[in-house]
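Q: Is it fine to ask for two folds in a single conversation?
A: Yes, each is treated on its own. Send the first.
Q: Here.
A: Result:
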Amino acid sequence: MDTTPNANYRKVVIARIAATLKPLGFRRKAMTFTRAQGDVLQFVNVQASTSSTADILKLTVNLAVYSEEVNQILNPGDDIGCGGWLDNHWRDRIGSLTDDRQDVWWTITNTTEAENSGNEIAALLVKSGMDVLALHSSTLDLVPRIPIRPGGYNERVVEAWLAKQDGRDISP
């Protein structure tokens, strides 16, 4: 069992976030909260930085959405589902929800900072995070919001999904 200050700070931050997200239908596994919403899975992930130490916790929060329907367009017959963070079809950092839209990392060196950071993150999730996830509450909502990169994966996903909606069968 990890008893470093870092591990204790994580517990405090996660507890503050859990108190906010669990009543909204999220389940927790390690540092990731998940809920089914419509036909998609929504994620809130607390990511610790690789520059964290035993005494200092640096973290940010990621939001993501996964659609099994989009997965089946990309990977017909795949029955694995969402196997990892990179399988999500839409991802963003919590910093994109702030007024200055800058990536946000919290640096925590004591329990008070952990409590304050956990409260700040929970408040930001309530103020803006749930609204952003609500925009991605179904595959129908999700696909038009998948960022398009010409010639890339996302363009093929959107093209294939739209073709499927029109009754055309094309491979992404």
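Q: Second one now.
A: Result:
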Amino acid sequence: MHVATEDQIWELRARLLATPTDVATAKRYWDALGNLNGHDVRSGRDVVDAFGHAALQSDGGAIALSSAYWELFNLSGEGPRKTYLNENLLSAIRRARHRTPGSDGDLLQWLLESVQESSVR
């Protein structure tokens, strides 16, 4: 993986702000945060910042958001929390879940169940 500099992060962030529903740009931003000056600085807030708008617009965006959260969970133990996922976003993920079969659907279901579990604790 390419080591990203702070300048590259700012450039990618500007691109993301200009095209917030573009999953490919969100993914580049997410990946860059995973290797900022050789360190993974990603958090749940970054998942939503990177993929939230895309998740509101498309099932593919919701899947990308869930995938990023799964990656974060496997690397750091930080799972999805309702703190970062508002009701509009959760509704979009639920709709995507109903339309998405297979492993992508399972990933969306994992996110929804994780949020529900975290709000019970």
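Q: Anything structural to flag on that second result?
A: Two points. The two ends are 36 Å apart (CA to CA). The longest helix spans residues 102-120.
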